[in-house]
Amino acid sequence: MVRVDLHTHTEYSSDSELGLEDAVEGWQRAGIDCVAVTDHNTIAGAIALRDWAPLRVIVGSEVRTCEGEIIGLFLQEEIARGLTPEETIRHIRDQQGLVMIPHPFDRFRRSRLTEEALRRVLAEVDIIEVFNARTAFARDNRRADLLAAEHGLIPVAGSDSHTAHELGRAYVEMPDFDSPQTFLESLREGRLVKRQSSWFVHAFTRWAKLRSRFR
After folding, report:
1. Phi, psi angles (nearest 5°) of residue 62
2. Which residues have C-beta within 8 Å of that of residue 34, sequence separation ≥ 6?
3. Cβ within 8 Å of residue 136, ≥6 positions away
4. Are the CB atoms for 35 and 64 separated by under 8 Å?
5. What is the pLDDT confidence band of residue 99, given thresholds at 50, 70 and 90?
6. Which of 40, 73, 124, 164 is most buried (CB neighbours < 10 A)?
7. pLDDT exceeds cutoff 80 at 202
């Protein structure tokens, strides 16, 4: 079995200052075997980590569409922000990537995919994040869990980590895999580990985002 965190951020995201070396040390301390590095609108950090990190790295990105965020996994190329959800998913599929919807019902996330857009693209989605460690209200995570069950989508847990304190807070424990296809098969057999992060992490990311604007 391997422990996989499917939603993480590094200093390559404007709202995180978590360096790559610090991230790797934190994941190793938490016993994480594999991470999807899903920085906002870039795969640069994921590629940098993949080339030297002592743990397995899935290249991903949390892409801001014109109607909210979608995560692409197993990417090979950047995807431009600001496209429609349908166009973004097409670009993910063109790379043989997987489509994941993060924090779909988090009431405090202005960046979440709108419910109208979510309903439109649901048939093209592989994975739903049903537990996000940064989601403050358990009810919002439960709504995502119900949606995944209703539509037969694969449910996952992710830390959505932006700081060292969040690393390993949530992940999926699953059988090993060797390709995107076997990844999905293994993920269906996964066990979700769910530990909520402190509310204070949101204050840090706001501060990090402000700092990035004035650099």
Report:
1. -95, 100
2. 2, 3, 4, 5, 55, 56, 57, 58
3. 106, 108, 199
4. no
5. very high
6. 73
7. no
